[in-house]
Amino acid sequence: MTDKVIQNGTHIARYDAIEKPDHAYEAQVFVRLTREPDIAETYIPAGIYPTEEEALAGARERAKRALKEHEF
Fold first, then answer.
1. pLDDT confidence band for 69 (50 / 70 / 90)
2. Which of 42, 28, 34 is nearest to 12 (CA)?
3. Residue 1, pLDDT score
4. Does 28 have pLDDT greater than 90?
5. Residue 31 has pLDDT above 70, yes or no
6. What are phi and psi for residue 67, nearest 5 degrees?
7. Residues whose CB is less than 8 angstroms from the CB of residue 15 and which lie 6 or more positions away in sequence, other chains included
8. Distance of alpha carbon 14 from alpha carbon 1, whole angstroms
9. 3-state secondary structure string, the chain?
10. 7-23 as b/e, with b when 16 or more CB fall inside 10 Å?
């Protein structure tokens, strides 16, 4: 999963795409301080997409925005 992680200074954003029962994909982003455990992550929904590739791209863009705008 290291390719689905973006780090910016002291913050980290992890993102993924999860297939839903209707075969659409939910883009998910989780952000936290690097020194905090995974359990301290803040969940940011990033939309529903028709394909996994689009969901991952949407999640990555949302993760970048969360880090840039300090959304924690």
1. confident
2. 34
3. 43
4. yes
5. yes
6. -70, -45
7. 4, 5, 6, 27, 28, 29, 30, 46, 56, 59, 60, 62, 63
8. 9
9. CHHHEEEECCEEEEEEEEECCCCCEEEEEEEEECCCCHHHCEEEEEEEECCHHHHHHHHHHHHHHHHHCCCC
10. eeeebbbbbbbeeeeee
Say if residues 58 and 18 touch (Cβ distance below 8 Å). no
Pick the closest to residue 57 from 42, 44, 66, 47 (CA basis): 47
Write down the pLDDT at residue 11.
Answer: 93
Q: Distance (Å, rounded) from C-alpha 68 to C-alpha 37?
A: 21
For the whole model, what pTM was predicted? 0.87
| Start-to-end CA span in the chain (Å) | 21
